[in-house]
C-alpha cells in the first residue's frame, strides 16, 4: 500500500517537473516572439503618432500605454541578456550556449512569468485600442 502511494506521488511529481521543464524551455521562443512583437509595436506607434486620431486624448493615452509596454519589453530582454552574460563564464561548450534553462532555472522561471504578464497586458491594451476604434495592432499576439 505504501509503495503504491509513493509511486503515485513520484508519478505526479515527475509530471509536474516535466510540465515546468517544458514551460521553461519555451522561454527562448517567447523571447523571440516578444522581439518580433516589439518591432511591430514600434512601427505601429510611429504610424499612430503620425496618422491616427490627432487631438483625441483617449488615443494619446492608449499610444502612451503601448509605448510603455514597448519599453517594458526592451527592459525585460535587456535584463535577461545581462543576467545570462553575468552568470555565464565565457565558454564554447554547446551546453552553456544552448541551455540556459538547465544552468539558470530560477532566472528562466522569472523570465517566463514576466513574459506571460507582458503578453496579458498587451492583449488588454490592444483590446482597449480596438474598443477605441484603433486598428488592432495585436492580431498576431498569441
How would you describe this structure to a colleague?
It holds the Pfam family Rx_N. One of its GO terms (biological process) is defense response. The chain has helices spanning 2-25, 27-51, 57-87, 94-98, 100-103, 105-131. Helix 2 (27-51) runs antiparallel to helix 3, helix 2 packs parallel to helix 6 and helix 3 runs antiparallel to helix 6. It has one domain (2-131). The protein is mainly α and 142 residues long. Mean pLDDT is 69; it is low at 136-142.
Quick recap:
Belongs to the disease resistance NB-LRR family. The chain is mainly α.
Please give a handful of descriptors for the protein shown.
mainly alpha, 142 residues, single chain
Number of helices: 6
Give the helix proportion (percent range).
Answer: over 70%
Average pLDDT for all residues? 69
Q: What is the β-strand count?
A: 0
Largest sheet: none
**Overall geometry:** elongated
Q: What class would the helix/strand composition place it in?
A: mainly alpha
Oligomeric composition of the shown chains? single chain
Q: In whole angstroms, how far apart are the ends?
A: 45 Å
* Tally of discrete structural domains: 1
Topology:
Elements: H1 2-25, H2 27-51, H3 57-87, H4 94-98, H5 100-103, H6 105-131
Family: Belongs to the disease resistance NB-LRR family.
Domain Disease resistance N-terminal: 5-94
Protein name: Putative disease resistance protein
Amino acid at each position: 500500500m505504501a509503495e503504491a502511494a509513493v509511486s503515485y506521488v513520484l508519478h505526479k511529481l515527475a509530471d509536474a517537473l516535466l510540465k515546468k521543464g517544458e514551460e521553461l524551455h519555451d522561454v527562448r521562443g517567447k523571447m523571440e516572439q516578444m522581439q518580433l512583437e516589439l518591432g511591430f509595436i514600434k512601427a505601429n506607434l510611429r504610424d499612430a503618432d503620425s496618422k491616427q486620431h490627432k487631438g483625441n486624448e483617449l488615443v494619446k493615452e492608449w499610444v502612451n500605454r503601448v509605448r510603455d509596454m514597448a519599453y517594458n519589453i526592451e527592459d525585460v530582454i535587456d535584463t535577461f541578456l545581462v543576467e545570462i552574460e553575468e552568470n555565464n563564464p565565457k565558454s564554447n561548450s554547446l551546453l552553456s550556449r544552448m541551455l540556459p534553462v538547465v544552468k539558470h532555472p530560477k532566472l528562466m522561471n522569472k523570465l517566463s512569468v514576466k513574459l506571460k504578464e507582458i503578453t496579458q497586458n498587451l492583449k488588454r491594451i490592444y483590446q482597449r485600442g480596438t474598443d477605441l476604434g484603433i486598428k488592432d495592432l495585436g492580431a498576431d499576439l498569441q
